[in-house]
Amino acid sequence: MAKIESFTLDHTKVKAPYVRLITEEVGENKDVISNFDLRLVQPNENAIPTAGLHTIEHLLAGLLRDQLTGVIDCSPFGCRTGFHLITWGEHSTVEVAQALKNALYEIATDITWEDVQGTDIYSCGNYRDHSLFSAKEWAGKILEEGISSDPFIRKVI
């Protein structure tokens, strides 16, 4: 079985919240795809409740695309501590951390229920499992802690 880089990371050494570049893959045509770890809470110490994480996921899908070029996907970790962000091209962790900070600020302060895309039976596979209240609460908490551009040394942007 292929070794997965994220599963070799010592989760006891990282200091969340942070942005970490997991890998940059170069395709046959020299195109670059980057995979980032957007870790919002400390692994094995906390987890964002599913409904709040689900709403954050739907919001980040649009908000990060508004701020970064080449966003392919932003998907939650099963452990509910953060997200994978997949992009075309190369971005610095500082650039991604700033975009994440801006998106979380919007969630915490400006977003209303009407802004959340994909919350009905036609556009979501589990439309009943959302909580804007929880998303706002967690976004605020993460912003208070500060988002680092380094997983091991707190370099808050």
Automatic annotation (TrEMBL):
<feature type="binding site">
    <location>
        <position position="58"/>
    </location>
    <ligand>
        <name>Fe cation</name>
    </ligand>
</feature>
<comment type="subunit">
    <text>Homodimer.</text>
</comment>
<dbReference type="GO" id="GO:0005506">
    <property type="term" value="F:iron ion binding"/>
</dbReference>
<keyword id="KW-0456">Lyase</keyword>
<keyword id="KW-0071">Autoinducer synthesis</keyword>
<dbReference type="InterPro" id="IPR011249">
    <property type="entry name" value="Metalloenz_LuxS/M16"/>
</dbReference>
<comment type="function">
    <text>Involved in the synthesis of autoinducer 2 (AI-2) which is secreted by bacteria and is used to communicate both the cell density and the metabolic potential of the environment. The regulation of gene expression in response to changes in cell density is called quorum sensing. Catalyzes the transformation of S-ribosylhomocysteine (RHC) to homocysteine (HC) and 4,5-dihydroxy-2,3-pentadione (DPD).</text>
</comment>
<keyword id="KW-0673">Quorum sensing</keyword>
<dbReference type="InterPro" id="IPR003815">
    <property type="entry name" value="S-ribosylhomocysteinase"/>
</dbReference>
<dbReference type="GO" id="GO:0009372">
    <property type="term" value="P:quorum sensing"/>
</dbReference>
<dbReference type="GO" id="GO:0043768">
    <property type="term" value="F:S-ribosylhomocysteine lyase activity"/>
</dbReference>
<dbReference type="InterPro" id="IPR037005">
    <property type="entry name" value="LuxS_sf"/>
</dbReference>
<feature type="binding site">
    <location>
        <position position="54"/>
    </location>
    <ligand>
        <name>Fe cation</name>
    </ligand>
</feature>
<feature type="binding site">
    <location>
        <position position="124"/>
    </location>
    <ligand>
        <name>Fe cation</name>
    </ligand>
</feature>
<keyword id="KW-0408">Iron</keyword>
<protein>
    <recommendedName>
        <fullName>S-ribosylhomocysteine lyase</fullName>
        <ecNumber>4.4.1.21</ecNumber>
    </recommendedName>
</protein>
<dbReference type="Pfam" id="PF02664">
    <property type="entry name" value="LuxS"/>
</dbReference>
<keyword id="KW-0479">Metal-binding</keyword>
<comment type="similarity">
    <text>Belongs to the LuxS family.</text>
</comment>
